[in-house]
Amino acid sequence: MEKRQVLINAIISVVQIVVIGGILFILYRFLLVTLGVEQLGILSLVLATTSITQIANLGLSGSVVRFVAKYIARGENENASAVIQTAAISVGISIGLVLFAGYPSIKWVLGLVVLDKSLPLALSILTHAVLALWIMVVTSIFQAGLDGCQRIDLRGILLMGGAALYLILCFILVPTYGLIGAASAIVIQNLTILIASLLLLRRYLPLLPIFPYKWSKNIFKEIVSYGFNFQVISITAMFYDPITKALLSKFGGLSLVGYYEMASRMIQQFRSLIVSANQVLVPAIADMQEKKPEAVQSVYLTSYQLVFYLALPLYSLIIVCTPIISELWIGHYERIFVIFGILIAIGWFLNTLAGPAYFANLGIGELRWNVVGHIMIAVFNAGLGFLFGIFYDGVGVVVAWIFSLALGSSVIYLSYHIKNKIPLIELMPKASRLIVAACLIGILSALLINHKLNDNFNVAALNSIIILSFSTIVLIPFWRHPMRKRLMAWFMYGLFNRKNP
Predict the structure, then answer these.
(1) Which of 300, 294, 290, 427 has its CA nearest to residue 365?
(2) Among 96, 227, 320, 373, which is disulfide-ready with 408 (CB 3.0 to 4.6 Å)?
(3) Which pTM value belongs to this model?
(4) Other beta carbons within 10 Å of 476
(5) CA–CA distance, 208 with 171 (Å, rounded to integer)
(6) How far apart are CA 3 and CA 425, in angstroms?
């Protein structure tokens, strides 16, 4: 039953990403038409700036997943409840104090990176952004509790419902209240998900009270000691988006921030199709580490081979389709959106390959190289982003971000292979080498078709030819890959409890 639940979690995670992706496509198109790209950039920048205050999170959401899974595996549900209560109280107080004390500093930072004419509008939604962030961080503890109970499927359902609610609220509030309406919708959405997450979690941990009140010093020490490295990861990751967007605003303007936000959300939504399904391994590996540690490496290799098999064609297709998405989403071919989309796709592909090693490290509690990778990304992004921004404007900022992301991510999977004596050749799985060649040929053919036939066909016909050409080249090696049969077997087992694969 545990194996089947892991598969169901993975399936729901993928469904969640598809549904939320569709909602985001409609939402950003609506906000782009209703508010304009500059106001979309302001909303994105304010939310990114306030997110820095999650430095007070103490890394506890990551700790909650591991320790709730650990205590449930031991049958110690009372301790699992104590972990969640202690984490929720600690995070609620620490984040609240930091947001209150840091409010003037956030206003000062916004004054540095936002043009004077747009600053009053940015400040008008700052209170909404702060409140929404506090609710979201507390909610993350209860959602981590669901993950620890290996009910990631329920969290996925909650997030799908929350995304749909936000879309409806934007349809209602934004035409009347503009940017403030969009910010208010985020607050309502987050509050709804908070209440629903707590009520659902209590079904699996009945000892958990409606209002957490039990704070344990010993539990706090335990989860913080694990969460220290996790907190370093969280702190560095928090600076990625704000620094990139702040540098983009300074060297490229708010319109570039808006297009970067759209391209980044698009790529990360596709990326989440793979990463969210892979993330279910954290509580599963934590449970396995307690009961059957010798199986962890086998799970890692299978996970990496699956990620490589799915990620390469997916990101290649995104690169090919980015001009088409620009036509459909923005309403015209937007050159800067296409450039950003292609660059970000390359960077996140290389990062996605680090996912299995990253989550395996989380599951077994060895986070050193995860920390090193994240610090490298943050340091290089800030330094190179500023330098490239001076010489190459906004595009230089994004190039620096992608280079930093790829470099730091490679440290994580290379170190995992070296430490566990896994041959580096496994990073290019033998069974997937034909797909690598097919994807490269498919991308080159798409570029060639676009260059040669651009003047001979209308946009719809040209895009159809490009997608058909790419699909024809890639589909046969993708279909004949041995991982496809294994994937179908897992899917059938997860849905219908057929023969265990």
Answers:
(1) 290
(2) 373
(3) 0.67
(4) 13
(5) 36
(6) 29
Please answer whether residues 65 and 283 qualify as being in contact, where contact means their C-beta atoms are separated by less than 8 angstroms. Answer: yes
Q: 501 lies in a domain?
A: no
**Burial group, residue 118, by CB count within 10 angstroms (0-12, 13-18, 19+):** middle
Ordered mean pLDDT values, 10 residues apiece, the chain (501 residues): 59 75 86 86 78 56 78 82 89 86 84 78 87 89 83 81 92 92 92 92 87 86 70 74 87 86 85 66 52 66 85 91 86 88 93 87 77 91 92 91 94 90 87 91 87 72 85 90 76 52 46
Phi, psi for residue 442 in degrees, rounded to 5: -60, -45
Which range marks the domain in which residue 54 is found?
2-428
C-alpha to C-alpha distances, 161 to 95, 150, 156, nearest whole angstrom = 26, 19, 9
Q: CA angle 176-255-339, nearest 5°? A: 130
Is 499 a member of any domain?
no
Q: Count the domains in the chain.
A: 1
Closest CA to 55 of 128, 133, 108: 133
Task: Identify the DSSP state of 426.
Answer: G
Kindly state whether residue 446 falls inside one of the protein's structural domains: no
